[in-house]
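Protein of interest.
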Amino acid sequence: DSDETMRVSVRKTLFAISSAALLPFAWHCVRGIPALVARRQELRPDYPYPQWSDLYILGVAVLFFVPMRYLLTRTVFYHLAHWILPGVAEKREWTTKIREDRVERWATVCFKFLYFVGITAFGMHLLKPTEWFPPELGGSGSTDRMFDEFPYDSVTPFMKEYYLIGVAYHTQSLVFHVVGPHRNDFAEMVLHHLCAIFLALFSYFCNFHRIGSLVLFVHDAADVAGYAVKASVDTKYTKMTLVIYACLLFVWAYTRFYVFPFLIIAKIGPGLEYVQAKWADSHPELVVPYNWKFFEGMLYILLVLHVYWYALFLYMGYMYSRTGVTKDLQQKAVGEKYPCSQDAKNNKIGNKLSSNSSNNSMGQKKKQQPNKSGNADRLRQRHHINGTTNDNTQSK
């Protein structure tokens, strides 16, 4: 327990330091955005450039997500979790408190799974016809086209809503994450939400809509499989969990280790060179290389988090092969322990011993039954002999 507490404490400290270290760099980017936006609007007053007033969509979406999440996780998904998840008697390592924690977690996971299914479908419908949505994701364009018209990209219908709904989701998720129970993934998820919110808002107001929409879509699509596994891991349907787990490993490896770094991040450098050459003679102030580099660095931070989480996924599969127990190591309940292989063997031995003892007791009962009947027969015979003797005595 002390070793586990120490590891969690060290991990929280490292992620807290990482988050704090990003603040001065983020501030350096943010403070120059108003002037940059104003200059771009001045050159193209007819262009529908992102406005600060657009943030009302973010506010409305947050006000929708917060009560909707609270209602669904406290009613429909909560009662469904009590029906689907096994009881304490079936999960030997669970206590009543841990099971209640898993019920609440399962309800939250279902809400998140529902969101990612919906937002992924919306993103596919929105981005598939565009010229920068690559065939690797189901489109017919190329990520080389992400910066063709920057910073005055052609307007894509509902792009503003798609962007700000994603920001709203991560905002409400961060709020619930901070005020809710602090699990062992608290620090890394805070860093993840902060990166996601900053990157989305930063790319929105800098008009990085094309690359930003691809980043959102790639992450949303992978999270569908991720939360499907989280929803099934605590159930008794082990085979279904293993199938979804295999899909998760493939989807994450494909979207976050191939598409994300090689088809999206790798295009930022050439894109910056193209845009700088395009505006070098007329308006070089429209391009701020520092913003591009910081944006790229933040994406690499997300990539490092992906590697960390993928390693956790692989370790979960390894532990299942050792123990035969499916368990989410990323979000453990307070006081919950992951059973080691020896614990699993002991549980199996305990089950066999209890089974043998019950069989022995049943056998003893069966053996006792003929003894009782045999004693009754001997008593009847003795009574019969005594009765015969008395009759003979009377006759004499």
In short: The longest helix spans residues 341-395. The chain is about 75% helix and 0% strand.
